[in-house]
Amino acid sequence: MTDQDISNEIFADLNAFRSNGKMRKLLNDYHTMRKRNKISKNLPYARCFDVVSESKNNWLFILSKAPSSKKYRTTDDVNTPLLLHYESTEGVMVIKVTTSGGLDFYNSNFFDTYNEAMNLNLQKTIEIAKHFFINNGYYSAGSMYIGDEEYVLCKCKEGFLLGDISEDKKRIIMLSFISNNSSGDLLRIGNDLIDSLQKTIEEQLNESDFNREKYFVNADVLSNIRAA
Question: Closest by alpha carbon to 99, among 220, 4, 197, 202?
């Protein structure tokens, strides 16, 4: 399959989930779980749901309280990374659908670097992936040069993601994970990304055509990163 074929199938699945009520059912199930287990309104309470689409694709939805919501009240306070996973010739591949409609690709090598950097000692790639996205479902992206090559550098809660971006800027191949216990240069870049995101949020609040959805996306990213 070409990248375009993959993209078309992913968004067809998501449209089907919305139209057939699957997304609403997951939200309602999550809400019921919180109430039944008497979960504090302050806790994220992340829960993983495995879903197979009508086209037989394997999806993983990790529902939790949105980082920018101080307290959980209704399903409007829920966020979830949209994750499709499958077996490739290189092992497990996970594709994350970004809020802008782009695609991030994470392969087994990436999750191995995360497993090692965080000393998790997990054995199955899908379990490493779940741990990663529960803790690092949001990031702020920038760029850096290694020699003459430009790479994407993303700041997440537990560290940094180094990736390679496609020419059309719609796909990122995540290459490796670097923990927060890293060099001063990376920490400086990470702080710059956080400061830039904070400035963007402040500017959004003062825009005459305030976009509520974009504002809360950025607020979730900032809240999650600062939770480290």
Answer: 220
Cα 53 to Cα 132: distance, rounded to the nearest angstrom = 23
Task: For residues 180 and 111, give the distance between their C-alpha atoms in angstroms, rounded to a whole number.
Answer: 16
Q: Looking at residue 109, what DSSP letter applies?
A: H
Q: How far apart are CA 166 and CA 112, in angstroms?
A: 23
* Count of domains observed in the chain: 1
Q: pTM of the full predicted structure? A: 0.81
pLDDT on residue 194 = 62
Helix extents (H) in 65-183? 108-117, 125-135
Cα–Cα distance measured from residue 80 to residue 17, given in angstroms and rounded to the nearest whole number? 14
Structural domain span for residue 94 = 3-226
Least confident of 17-21, 126-130, 218-222: 218-222
The two tokens of residue 40 are 């504090």
CA distance 182 to 80: 28
